[in-house]
Amino acid sequence: MQVRRAGPADLPALLALEQNFPGDRMSARSMRRLLAADSAAIWVARSGGLTLGSLVLLTRRNSAVARIYSVVVDPAARGQGIAGRLVNAAERHARLGKKALMSLEVRADNAPARALYRRLGYAETAVLRAYYEDGADGLRLRRPLSG
């Protein structure tokens, strides 16, 4: 398995992964903008010529906080540690950019993702009522990047 920074040639595979979301999907236009932005990094996990997962990381120049905006793993590849490897790559990138804290939002009803983030050291810091497009609640999670 290879985890690497995505480029424009990865756009079709990234959009195919987005189809795994029931809602709140990123458009091709949004994905192209993120691929070109200095304030974003997209990571892909690939194996056997297939893109099995992706992660979108957002940063701001004058902020010590990096934000995981999206993590998607192909349903057929879940349970293989792909999301954890993507998060680790994003954390390394954020540390290199002198970020002190990683933040993300996750659906309150997404027990597998919540368990993953808990294992990786993320703590729930806020409940976000009706945060998602379908009215589902979200949770804000954070993790210090020191050490």
UniProtKB/TrEMBL annotation:
UniProt keywords, alphabetically: Acyltransferase, Transferase
Protein name as catalogued: GNAT family N-acetyltransferase
GO molecular function terms attached to this record: acyltransferase activity, transferring groups other than amino-acyl groups
N-acetyltransferase domain ranges (all copies): 1-146
Superkingdom per UniProt: Bacteria
Keyword Transferase set for record: yes
InterPro entries tied to this protein: Acyl_CoA_acyltransferase (IPR016181), Bact_Acetyltransf (IPR050832), GNAT_dom (IPR000182)
Record organism: Solimonas fluminis
CDD domains: NAT_SF
SUPFAM superfamilies tied to this protein: Acyl-CoA N-acyltransferases (Nat)
Record carries keyword Disulfide bond: no
